[in-house]
Amino acid sequence: MIQPTPSTAPVPDADECVALTRTLRRRGTVVLSVFALVWAFAGASGLASRGAALTVEILAAPVTAAAVYLAYRKGAAPSPRTVDLPGNWARSVGIVNVVELAAVFAVIAASNASGHPAFIPPCIALVVGLHFVPLARLYDQWQYKGTAALLCTVGALGLALIAAGLSDEGVRAVVGLASAVTLWASAYHVAVKG
Fold first, then answer.
1. pTM, whole model, 2 decimals?
2. Burial level of 113, CB count in 10 A (0-12/13-18/19+)?
């Protein structure tokens, strides 16, 4: 299929813009919430107390479900503004996500090969944080810059904790739980504020 050039591309009507904005924000909420859930379980696996870990795991599911509910609830007010997406935004998002995935696998491989698996959680938090920088522009969601800054801070904190001698499990707990809270906060913001 031939894509129209930007100068001849049809201008979407207001209803199409509102629908696309709502769809992207709903998808964003789901993706952010699901990855927050994954980080919560990773963080829980580093907790010394099995009871505390179980509590985190039990609470993580309804926190995730509530964010998704807020995004899909009937009667939700429309977003206060529609997104303004750059040309070829979907292709660019795909490239950003492929680079992120490759970097995550590289972090895991390098950390395991060097015998330093404690570096995996903080370095993944850094990679995920950095990938939000271009996504802020590509999705026209400028709050993702805050998500990026917080996740990079969490990653740097994890590296500092390694340098300070905290156990691998302790680093995983801190980085995992802080990353989960960051992603949930972003998901709730997208779901409620747009």
1. 0.89
2. exposed
